[in-house]
Amino acid sequence: MANTPEVTVGAPDGLGLRKVQIAGKTVGKAWSPRELRKYLDRAGVEPGHDIHWFGGDSTVWPDGRGWRRRTIGCLMFAGLLATSCPLFWIGISDSGDALTYGGRIAGFTVLVASVVEVFAAVACVDYWGKRRWRYSGVVVLAGVVIAFLCGVTLLLLQIGERSTRYRLIGMALTLASSLALVELAKARAWKGLRNPTKIAIGAVVSTILAGANLAYSQIYVPYVKTPLVESGAEFRESNLEKREGPLYVTVHLYVKNAGEVPVYVLDSQYWIHGVPASSRSDVKVEKDDLIYDGAFVKPVGRVLNPGEEIAQDSVVEIDDPESRKFEAIRAQTEVYVIRKDRMKMSSEYERSGVGGRALEEVAKKEDIPAGTKYMYRSDISNSSEILNVTRGRLRITVFRVSMGRWSNIVVDVSPPGDRVKFDPLHPLGDLLQSEKLRARYGLSAVRGSTTEMPYRELLEKARAVQKTAEPPK
């Protein structure tokens, strides 16, 4: 009898577990008499051995609602693990491919949050089990708080946007995490911490500072920096091949990024007009007589980095120059750009040009502006993956429209499945569908300065060059 070990079963704790001690050593905790018997058999204690009961006899086992505990644990495990999957995808994508430095830092932060969610899911097994680890409740609480913040963020980013499946995910995530927070508050999940109040205050302050830093780098800085793109034209030399032949005028066209923001050049155009002579002239010249128009930035969709300049010399041919009653020749340029730090455009845009019969086939399937000569189209993505999942896919389409003496460019940004309708009374529409998209992607039309040169001066220079080039008789 002296070697018979003393068996003690303690009072039930908050989970209904009763501590089991054999010979003064704790061997585990039991939910039920069956688990108690396992510990006793493992220690070699025969049935019928005397047991000292504290906090209730052998009939007191409070874990009668074990199914509820296991159900809550399984739901939290599944929810935290499901939350970590999109966070991991977003974090991996943004940490390497975000357009800004702040976006990549945010990607690393999201990636760390996904890892915390995985640890929280694993801690659920212990916390809703026998709680062998002291800090399992704190880890679960941190994971649920992150899930709640993710749900709220998804809902906030969806404000004013078209509805996507992530709106439903945000609503479900916010509701489920709120219920989980209530359950963890009832169970006092933070009991493992020595100074929970100080740690909570530190976590709140750190979250506020991180959010302010993220808002500054992701929202304030990009919107304070505005692109500065300059464009223009200059008349260079002119010449005549022979006295009755056409007049050739060389026009220097350029576009320069004088700001700090890189841009995509969606398309460009320039016009060469003949300015009519004075009304006292006997010959009436039609106003703004279009001599030539075309594009001067090729290929389309190329990136114009800060400080970079694109220039091209174009030779314009004027037939029968002696009979033209122009007072001056006018040159104008226009470039359509979109900010590269707010969106990404694939290289397919350059190769997507459609014109001629192919454009006629497109016009049978969808609406295009009247007088369209050609169009370019490509899918675009936002500056970060979190914006892609909340705003959905977008597509940019650029139309080159002819209007007699003028040509213009119409730009549309819309989801791929939307059918865009153009008003026949306003065929050019707006530069964008709304001011919201204009501000979001920084799409703008840069109209270059107007350059004029007296027509007679061009003729005189061309004649002088011709005389110099003629060999002496």
Structural summary, described in words:
The chain has 473 residues and is of the alpha+beta class. The chain is built from 10 helices and 18 strands. It has 4 domains: 55 residues; 158 residues, no CATH class; 131 residues, Immunoglobulin-like (Sandwich); 99 residues, no CATH class. 38% of the residues lie in helices and 28% in strands. About 3% of the residues have low confidence. The longest helix is centred in the first third of the chain and has 32 residues. Strand 2 and strand 3 form a beta hairpin. The strands form 4 sheets. Strands 7, 8, 9, 11, 17 and 18 form a 6-stranded antiparallel beta sheet that branches. Strands 12, 13, 14, 15 and 16 form a 5-stranded antiparallel beta sheet that branches.
Summary, kept brief:
The chain has 473 residues and is an alpha+beta fold.
Explain the layout of strands and helices.
Blueprint (H helix, E strand, L loop, with lengths): L6 E6 L5 E5 L2 E6 L2 H10 L8 E3 L12 H32 L3 H27 L8 H22 L7 H22 L9 H29 L4 E12 L6 E11 L5 E14 L12 E6 L8 E2 L4 E10 L7 E14 L3 E3 L8 E2 H10 L6 E11 L2 H7 L2 E10 L2 E9 L20 H7 L2 E4 L3 E4 H15 L4
Parallel strand pairs: 1-4
Antiparallel strand pairs: 1-2, 2-3, 5-6, 6-10, 7-8, 7-9, 7-11, 11-17, 11-18, 12-14, 13-14, 14-15, 15-16
Helix pairs in contact: 2-3, 3-4, 4-5
